[in-house]
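RECORD CONTENTS
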Amino acid sequence: MLIAATFIWGSGHPIGKLILAEITPLQLSMLSSVLGALAVAFGLVVKRRLSNLAQLRGRGLTLALLSGAIMFFLYPNLSFSALQQIPASANAILVATSTIFVAILSPIVLKEKLDIRGYVAVVVSFMGVAFVVLSTGQRSASLLGLNLLGCSLSLAGALAAASYTMIGRKAMARHDALSVTLVGSVLGGVLLAVVVQGTSGFVEIAHASLRTDALVAYWGIFSGLAYVMFYDSLKRLEATKASSFIYLSPLFAVVLSIAILGEAMTLTFVGGMALILGGIWGTQRSRSAPQSTG
């Protein structure tokens, strides 16, 4: 189930690139949040856990709404806006640095210590970010084609995802993870619908091709079901084993970007990807060591 979930999330980068040829990032964000909420609600019904929603109140509900505003409103807009400007493979790798941002912020927010290996891994990862950013210029055959705006939006999306991870962790410590996700995705969908109505409207959605409609349906529904599979898997595996699957999503995204979009890999990009994933691996080991001892 973890492999399936990470495959689905990884496929969102090349699939999103195709969808954005016809509709806007804001519209895609809205559709994915709404369809994802329906899929999560379906999962709660099937697992007979819909009653857990009633337990979300007070601080738990506030955290769920806050995390939803970040992950299902802010994050998709940043990531899809970046996807419009930079290669899907580059966006996938840069977004994966959310784990690095979690490692940086955790000592402050979650009081989780990071040892010297962790700080070295953070530095290594940001060296990789520099290479991936440079690769966006190489793909344009000139460093003048470097897309700093697109890369910045992608990294901002990674920071938003890291914020969601930390806020969501506090909410999910006492409440059902799928219930928290459902509340967040519903809020994100509603907020996005209001913004879409007040800005671009729904014209592009109404005139989208059948292929785009099918891709939107796939991404929206299956990305929601991926949350169901992901959280169900966490109950069956140790945290350290489950965390190893974090590398699959960006790798799937890169492979699918080559297969679906025909993106070419440069040495600069491959080197940057290796450094980033190596940095993520280092921070995961650094943070897991103290947890395993106590």
